[in-house]
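ERR on first pass: missing label on line 2. Operator R.T. fixed the label and resubmitted. Corrected input:
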Amino acid sequence: MIEFRDVFKSYQAGGVTKWILRGGSFRFPRHRSIGILGPNGAGKSTLIRMIAGAERPDHGTIRRTSRVSWPLGFSGGITGSMSGLDACVFVARLYGEDHRRVARFVEEFSGLGQYFYEPAATYSSGMKARLSFGLSMAIDFDIYLVDEITAVGDARFRQACLEAFRKRRETADVIMVSHSIKTIRDYCDMGAILSDGFLYFYDDIEEAIEIYSEHILGVPA
Amino acid sequence: MTAQIDHRFPSYWALGVPLSRFGRSVWAITLREYRVRYGKRRLGVFWAFAEPLAYVVGFTFIMSFSRAASPLGGGIAPFIATGLMTYMLVNSTESSVRSAIRPNAALLSFPRVRPIDLFLGRWLIEVTTLLLVTVVLFTAFWLAGAVEPPDEPWRLLLPLGLAMMAGFGGGIVNASIITVFKPWTAIYPVISKVNFLTSGIFFTVAAFPPTVTHYLWWQPVLHLTEWVRSAYYGSYESTFYDVWYPATVAVGLFFTGLVLERVNRVRLMNTKN
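pass 2 clean. output:
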């Protein structure tokens, strides 16, 4: 479970204070896949990073009792001196999983070949993303965070990603941010709109999309 | 249908889960650091012996010209080593903990990894390595007939433990100072040199007149070396050292470090010096 208690977060842009959350207290329900909608600059990515724990609120607390992934496709945690294998061993230990199983899965999934044993400094950004994606699929997360599904690799790899992610979603929830209403519709059954410092939940994703389109985008869905 | 909001907060987990996560994170970091430090070089852990050995051999060589024997009996090398290892438990630990963040900054983007985990990982590596080096070194001295085994081994535990605490706290305190006052990176090495020269590696306090020892009293590491030597050498009992002064400094540094890690966490996580 993820619970926000009295969370405030803002940032300065051109001398103006932009609010992402002004005192938000809510829980993300389990066993639902939630799509977060919101206009550009509302702070959707920051919200995802706060859920992940990569960014701290200015005030208030965020509690996680579920295993929450890092935002999918994010590979910033892998240092240049680590090989793919090192990264697997480190992350597996961090989450208390069997590092041999994790390494076997990621080595096969990422298709890095010999590079799996080389320092990540020698990787292209695509290779890093494949490693990171494979890692997040190998760890048994309760909730996957997605900040825009970005495609990496060739068509075959993309297919493998979607397949792995589909399998994961049978047991895990998703909290997703996307500009594409189609993607949100494909993955989510519940919606939330982040606007002007407040997060509104909608039990039905279609209702959320409708309200978002009419009131915020100004075009009927 | 309404959203199925899970209202049952698993309170019995509230302490256990963070604790086991903390433990896992520290463990993952520690093993990672061991690998970075010793796993990738050919001679691995041998290099841990290089620095203390260089000091002991170098200064033994120099001092064997100026002074015939150790002031406390036995070889000059073990005399230096008792002081040096005490000093290194403070100083090497401090510098290792201080520089924990920068090479591992990327790991902090895993939400489970916090600066304290990096500090603790470095601390564990440093103290286990130094203790191993100390044991091997003194076993070698003993086999070579240069020194007897420690006279009161249990009396070594407290001063060595305080040295490790001071190194841990001092490292975090310095890392925190650097986040708000960059010139500290240039100022601290000067303090560190003074600390090196006055910590009693090369002398016992008895060698100085009271006017000098009056000022030396304020050097906490010197208290620890005198304490360690009083415990190690059966024939020596220093009247100089105080238990409470170095203990207060070490415990004070330790807790100041823990508090600073909490209040300064965001700045520490952005360390890019």
